[in-house]
Specification:
It is a single chain. The protein has 231 residues and is α/β, with parallel strands linked by helices. Helices cover 27% and strands 26% of the residues. The protein contains four helices and 20 strands. It is an enzyme of class 2 (transferase). Its EC number is 2.3.1.18. Keywords: Acyltransferase, Transferase. Belongs to the transferase hexapeptide repeat family.
């Protein structure tokens, strides 16, 4: 009998002997030691401080300089959180001052136009796992909040016709700019589609699918997004 067969017999608890081994192993899995508050509280904050220090060293001396080489312009105070965004396509990136971007994000430029452009204004925030897919241009204003898992599409991605979809990129007709004005807030898991302008100070609710322009100082929600109320 090999080790694998022995493990199967223990899990099946085929005999009292295997049952005792099973119970002993399960008891060991539940074993705990007392949590001595001063000691483990110190260890918790020691670990937190050490990891924060290490992450900041990597951010300052590794991630941020690398990311800047892939941008046309970057203002002062860029802050990358936990890594570096994935950049695909021939994308021109311009970033204002004091911008915060999560490392787990994707910036993609279409291959249909020569120089797709992504612009991010001063003091804006790009959250965790945001995907920005640029057709011709995606312009994000100043003091904009883009929450986690938001997707912004400046193109269809693929032709609608299944025959064309096999071998052809989307046509230029399917590419339109996206504009997000100053002080807008795009909530978690929202989707913004091509050709949309989101007005100044507007809020896009969680999970909304924005298919048309959002007026300034309004809240929209739903699929498709509709005006809920004025701010």
């Amino acid at each position: 009998m090999n080790i694998k067969e022995f493990g199967v017999r223990v899990r099946r608890r085929e005999t009292p002997f295997y049952d005792r081994i099973y119970r002993a192993a399960k008891s060991l899995r539940k074993f705990e030691i007392p949590s001595i508050s001063p000691l483990y509280s110190f260890l918790y904050y020691e670990r937190k401080t050490r990891l924060n220090l290490w992450n900041n060293i990597i951010r300052v001396f590794y991630y941020t300089p690398m990311f800047k080489t892939q941008c046309k312009n970057v203002g002062k105070g860029l802050y990358l959180i936990n890594g570096i965004p994935l950049i695909t396509g021939n994308l021109t990136i311009e970033i204002g001052e004091e911008v915060t971007i999560f490392g787990k994000t994707t910036f993609n430029g279409t291959k249909v136009v020569d120089k797709p452009t992504l612009e991010i204004g001063d003091h804006s925030y790009i959250g965790y796992q945001v995907g920005i897919y640029v057709g011709s241009n995606v312009s994000i204003g100043s003091n904009v909040l883009i929450s986690n898992n938001v997707s912004i599409f400046g193109e269809d991605g693929h032709p609608i016709d299944p025959i064309l979809r096999r071998n052809n990129p989307p046509s230029r007709d399917s590419i339109k700019p996206v504009v997000i004005r100053d002080d807008a807030w795009i909530c978690e898991r929202a989707i913004v589609l091509k050709g949309v302008t989101i007005g100044e100070g507007a809020i896009v609710g969680t999970g909304a699918v924005v298919t048309k322009d959002v007026p300034p100082m309004t809240i929209v929600a739903g699929n498709p997004a509709r005006i809920v109320r004025k701010i």
